[in-house]
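User: Please predict the structure of the protein below. I'd like the answer in C-alpha cell form so I can feed it into my own downstream comparison script.

Assistant: Understood. Taking the following sequence of 203 residues as input:
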Amino acid sequence: MLPPLWSTVLSGEAKFPAAVHDCKAAVRWLRANAVKYGIDPGRIVLVGGSAGAHLAALVATAGPEAKLEGVTSKDISSAVQAAVVIAGPTDTTDEQAAKNSRRPGSNYQLFLGGIIDELPALYSRASPAHWASERTPPMLIFGENSASSYQAIESKLRKLGVRCESFVLTGGIHGEWNREPWFSITMNRIDRFLGDVLKSPAS
C-alpha cells in the first residue's frame, strides 16, 4: 500500500490559500511522477494532524469549483482517494471556530488574515464542511475528547452517502496521536480504514 502523504503547516508561514495550493500541487506531482516512483495514481491518500488535518480535509473536499487549485495543469487532477483527518478543524465557520478566531493572535487570524466577523466569506471558503459533496472521497476523522470538531462534516457526508468514519481519542492532550498509547490506536485504525477503502479492484 502506498504510504500516505503527510502535510503540516504553520499558520504564520503564508496566508490562505497558499498552503492549500501547495498540497494540491504535491498531489499533482505524485500523480505526474507515478510511473517513475512506482505510485498507484488511483490510490493517493492525504493524512494530517491538527493544522495538517484541516488541510487534508480541505484538499479532499474542495474540487475545482472552489478555485483553490493554484497554478495547475488541466491534465493532472489533484483529487485524492481518501483522507485521514486527525484532530483538526473541519468547519471554520462554526461557533467554536468563530470564538477562537476572535482571540488575539489566534492561528485563525494568522492563517486567514483576520477574524470571522471581518472575513465571513473567506472563513466559509476555508471550511472543508462547506465544500463537502457526493464527490468527497472516504474520510476517517479523529476527534480529541469529543466529536465536536467533526460532527457537522460527518453528518453532511453521511447524508450524501459518502463513507465517513470517526473515532474519538480520549485522555490525552493535543498531539497525543504521536505518543503511546494513542499512537498505536491511531495507526491501527488508519491501517484498517485504508486497507478497506483502497482495496484493489481484483481483491
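That's the full C-alpha cell string. The mean pLDDT is 90.
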